[in-house]
Design goal:
alpha+beta, seven-stranded antiparallel sheet, 3 helices, 37% helix, 32% strand, globular
Length: 131
């Protein structure tokens, strides 16, 4: 009975981990800290959405990713691209207020955290220095 309970707990933890439901925080939450959650990396930046949109396209271009779709709505701007290896890249930009934007980056369908963090870092750096 105890073996069965331990097995169920271990399997449950594995399923949660593989589905991306468990996140790894890079530090305490809030602006300036990127978090891995549900197969995407998320960070809020102190820049308006227009500036972050330009920074996102410039960062993707620098990384040789090909942007093939850009969609604008009042609550989100979504940029879709393919990286040089052919992986799908999703970038969602959401205005928090007039001067702050939430960035979500996802790369591929599995194991894209490292690539997503690189793209996010480039977007943040460009948002702080461009325009």
């Amino acid at each position: 009975m105890l073996k069965k309970a331990l097995l169920i707990i271990a399997l449950s933890a594995s399923v949660a981990n593989f589905s991306g439901c468990i996140f790894l925080a890079a530090g305490a939450g809030g602006a300036g800290t990127a978090k891995w959650l549900s197969d995407k990396v998320t960070q809020e930046v102190n820049s308006p959405i227009d500036k972050v949109t330009k920074s996102t396209k410039a960062a993707l271009e620098d990384m040789k990713a090909v942007v093939y779709k850009e969609t604008h709505a009042p609550d989100v701007t979504q940029i879709l691209a393919k990286d040089p290896s052919g992986k799908q890249v999703w970038v969602d930009l959401r205005p928090v207020d007039a001067n702050n934007t939430k960035i979500d980056v996802r790369v591929g369908y599995l194991n894209g955290e490292s690539d997503a963090r690189k793209i996010l870092e480039s977007i943040v750096n460009k948002s702080n220095s461009l325009f």
